[in-house]
Amino acid sequence: MVTRKTAHVCFLMGVTLLLSAVAALLPVEQTAAQQSRSSGAGSPARVEGAPVTIPAGKGDDLSTVNWDDATDETPASQEKTGDSDLSKENWEDEKSSKDVTEKEAASDLSKESWEDEGSAKNVPEKEDGLQMMKQEEIDKLDSRERLIHLSGFALFIGYILGGVLTAFATRNRKLAVSLPPELLILLHTFWPLELILLPFMRARIR
Amino acid sequence: MWEVLDLELIASGLRLSTPLILAALGGLFSERAGVVNIALDGIMIFGAFTGAVVAYETGNPWFGLLAAMLLGGLVAHIHGIASIRYQADQVVSGTAINLLAIGVPAVLSNALYNSTTVTPNIQLMLPIIRIPVISSIPILSTLLGKYSVLVFFAFAMVPLSWFVIFKTSFGLRLRSVGENPEAAETAGINVYLMRYYAVWISGLLAGLGGAFLSIAHGSSFVHNISAGRGFIALAALIFGRYTPKLTLLGCMMFGIADAFQIRIQGVIPIPGQFIQMFPYVLTMIVLAGLIGRAQVPAADGIPYAQAK
Fold this sequence. Notes:
Shape of chain A: elongated
Helix content of chain B: 55-70%
Distance between the termini of chain A: 17 Å
Number of strands of chain B: 2
Largest sheet of chain B: 2 strands, antiparallel
Oligomer: heterodimer
Helix content of chain A: 55-70%
Structural class of chain B: mainly alpha
Number of helices of chain A: 8
Structural class of chain A: mainly alpha
Distance between the termini of chain B: 64 Å
Order of helices and strands of chain A: HHHHHHHH
Strand order of the largest sheet of chain B: 1-2
Number of helices of chain B: 13
């Protein structure tokens, strides 16, 4: 016979599993809005769809890192602890490295199209179009952030309430009385596991 | 100098008092049950580290908050096992956890992010809540208009804690094991279990307080992020005579003192290091002046041997 308390516990389990499924299935991605905010703070920004910037460590192959997405400020995670990168530098060619840098800069500039600089008529329209696109993207990203917060909040509150209700519901169970309090507290901390064990310890004490 | 005394000072003080409130309420549960929890500062550091790491790795600050809370509970549970089951000196056990908190996050941070002092900035912090009507009223908008969600949560925990401790049977049992555990056991209350619950709850709340520092107030974990706030929370608890309402006032006082020392640096011709001492000197004055008058639970700090 299903008692009211058993029904409550099953309902609680169902709600919790549903919340967990919703929270787990929602994609948690870094938004460009947050990326633009965090790039000001100097964090290793993650761009949607782009490879994640890997913090440099000892012996890492830095040639595979996507430096185009790196921020200007080097965050702590990208501190180089080993001397392997410096040892690969050819200090004798210090002057030539400057030339290389200048050449690279010049080549980058040479790729720029300077012909459109004078056509001011096309610039406002393009800027309006770009602004609209950016606004749409920002709205989309804001709504995604809101979803992240809602799902996270639901999981947080659901976990707390679930823990409290589970502890209350199991107080008269054999589970609570036979187990030592140290284990019981651990079970309350990870109460979904406690609910799984509950059907195996159905007997009541009072 | 007097221009720093404005409404923004009070608003900053309320914000800075949030971790103190959460840790102090945690300490309240533990102390009322008869277990001295000196480890609040260490639990806050563990909570701050866990919150920052999980929030960074998952991209969701709420997951970090939950992880910080749970880890705070587990760390406090270690303190509980040492103090309750093995009847170790509670101050020594708490100090050991504080010492662990200095070293373990640094080691883990170095292993994960190649830095012993700071973790990467999280991309998404906890949301800021703007109360619609209050935000448009001139004075109230500064005082109450815009805070992190955890600030509101901390203030909401005060009446909730009062209700749980003083108006529920759970709270009555909690207080009874802290005042007279022998009588409580005679009445059929499991003293060990109640004390474990109290210490666990204190860890959950202190972990939340630590998480505030790294994922709501700041955006990463830095070495010594708590700056002794756990001990200040204990002082606020003593100042509040182990009641939630007065503890709140004590935490707000310390929070405003902290905000004051931040704002006054550079305004008056006193070295910043001396100004930074202000909240801690205030803590010592409070402890020296009020500790004799605070009504400590009768069995607080005394290990209890359960009758077999």
